[in-house]
Amino acid sequence: VQLQxxxxxxxxxxxxxxxxxxxxxxxxxxxxxxxYRQAPGKQREWVATITxxxxxxxxxxxxxxxxxxxxxxxNTVYLQMNSLKPEDAAVYYCNAPRxxxxxxxxxxxxxxxxxxxx
Length: 118
Prior knowledge:
By secondary structure, this protein is mainly beta. Helices cover 3% and strands 55% of the residues. The radius of gyration is 14 Å and the shape is globular.
C-alpha cells in the first residue's frame, strides 16, 4: 500500500479529528502531499496541500479550522480538523501528485470516513 489513511470517525459539530496518512518512503520523499474529500453525490474536492518544506495551502471552506502538517521522519501527513461542521462530512483522501514514467500521476489513499453530527 502506497498511502494509508486513518483517523476518521463520528464527531459532533464543533468537535475535532486528526487524520493521518502514512506513505511509503518512495512516495513521500517527493514534494506535495495533500488531502481531498468527497461527500455523497458530490465531486472530490481539494482540501489542503503541503510542500516538503512545510508551506501549506487551504481551501477557503476550511481555512482557519483545518491544519495540514507532515512528519518527514515518519513519512506521514496529518490533517487536524477543528470546529467541524456537518458540511465537512465526507470521505477524506490523502494524495501525492507525482510523475510516473514521465507523466503526471496521482497516488491516492483508500479514504477515511468523517461523519459530523449536528
